[in-house]
């Protein structure tokens, strides 16, 4: 095992549906993409293994439906993985498969070790709490009790993501999409997590807002040394942010490598198609 | 002691949808000593860029060895090295410069050079100082320091590119036709920059179209056609 990885995923599987006699066995399985036509089971993540190293940004790219969000949700315990291991390099859970911990322990890991920015801000934010209230919620979950202290952390973070402080008492439902994503980032950072998951953070934002969110992410990595998994179907985003990249197709990792190598010398036929269609 | 040694190196590209395999280079052997500057010449398509990009691992090579004497890892085969080690080497030991500037949008020249220093884990005050030093050393006009480089001329982009690489004081610098789009005057400047880098102890491997440019600058010239070093200034 790579004991210097901060997070290791081993053979993670996630299926939606019970499976049937043909698809239970990998060798007799005849899937259409990730779907068993016999019983309708979706194999959203298949045999996923990778390491995340301290301070790195790992990109995950793949077409719609390839399983990127499902993978993030399994890692963040929003979805229960069907099988597999998730190992964190951390004193408390050394060598343990944290996917098998109690829901209380999982909540603890989420609150103290992980931050998540969802593709859909509705999932990550309480739209009718104030921006500050959203951050306070996460801080309280992570053990915060001192109101003045939490407010000061909240202000610092909102400033960091360029939300004007005179708007901190407003509800995110009154914010633009880019502002909502930035509040999500502030919220995700509030517990000082060593690991941050970012799912399509810039999708749907216009180009200049996109640039400022990307810049923010880079700055956070540089200044705080947080390890991140950045999911995007947009290769330009991956090129800008990720040191290494995994390519997913139909629930599987089909290629992994240095980001510039994936873009300039892709090995897998599907990755080649993906890259050349952009040129 | 050899600093970089390319042994039996070869690389093919397979383009699946065209059902085509291109043999880009094969059987390349050469070595570079510490502090040397070697040039690589050969006709278009002979595989010069492929060699440099394989050393930097932007290309995934498939044959041979590229042994590099790393400060951190000792002797390491760049073709086999883990991605994480390559990322470390890119951050601290090996630089790559081409005529293209590939950077985060809306970031000023000064910020870009500072980031090169910051990613090596140095404090902001040091980054500021070293950025200013290198920007003036490599003669980027002071009024361009705090502007975005997307509107820069070819020569200005190149000077910024070299400054971003040089500020790290890399042990090995790969130059892929940095002078391709420059006029004579700018080329003279690049030549001076390269001489400065060399004086600072950087080992260099470069591809240049024009032989005149390399004349007197390179210690050795590797000819792709003959697959060996030629004497300086030889006609190719
Ligand atoms: N709750 C669910 N029940 C059944 N199938 C699901 C469920 N959630 C996701 N899926 C299926 O799992 C597969 C992977 O979906 P996922 O959302 O992870 O894809 P994605 O790579 O994030 O796509 P996108 O780029 O569109 O966001 C899809 O086939 C999807 O239909
Ligand atoms: N990323 C790539 N994908 C597919 N083929 C490539 C790729 N890069 C290079 N090649 C092929 O490999 C061969 C060598 O190309 P390379 O770019 O190394 O040549 P070069 O000597 O640098 O040429 P030039 O002087 O024109 O820059 C060419 O046939 C080229 O088409
Ligand atoms: Mg998704
Ligand atoms: Mg070339
Ligand atoms: Zn089935």
UniProtKB/TrEMBL annotation, chain A:
Keywords: ATP-binding, Lyase, Nucleotide-binding. The keyword Lyase applies. Gene3D superfamilies: P-loop containing nucleotide triphosphate hydrolases. InterPro entries: AAA+_ATPase, ABC_transporter-like_ATP-bd, ABC_transporter-like_CS, P-loop_NTPase, PhnK. Pfam families: ABC_tran. GO terms for molecular function: ATP binding; ATP hydrolysis activity; lyase activity. Residues 23-275 form the ABC transporter domain. The keyword Cell cycle does not apply. It comes from the Bacteria. One of its GO terms (biological process) is organic phosphonate catabolic process. This is Phosphonate C-P lyase system protein PhnK. It comes from Cytobacillus horneckiae.
From TrEMBL, chain B:
InterPro entries: AAA+_ATPase, ABC_transporter-like_ATP-bd, P-loop_NTPase. One of its GO terms (molecular function) is ATP binding. Keywords: ATP-binding, Lyase, Nucleotide-binding. The keyword Lyase applies. It holds the Pfam family ABC_tran. It comes from the Bacteria. Gene3D superfamilies: P-loop containing nucleotide triphosphate hydrolases. Residues 4-236 form the ABC transporter domain. Belongs to the ABC transporter superfamily. This is Phosphonate C-P lyase system protein PhnL. It comes from Cytobacillus horneckiae.
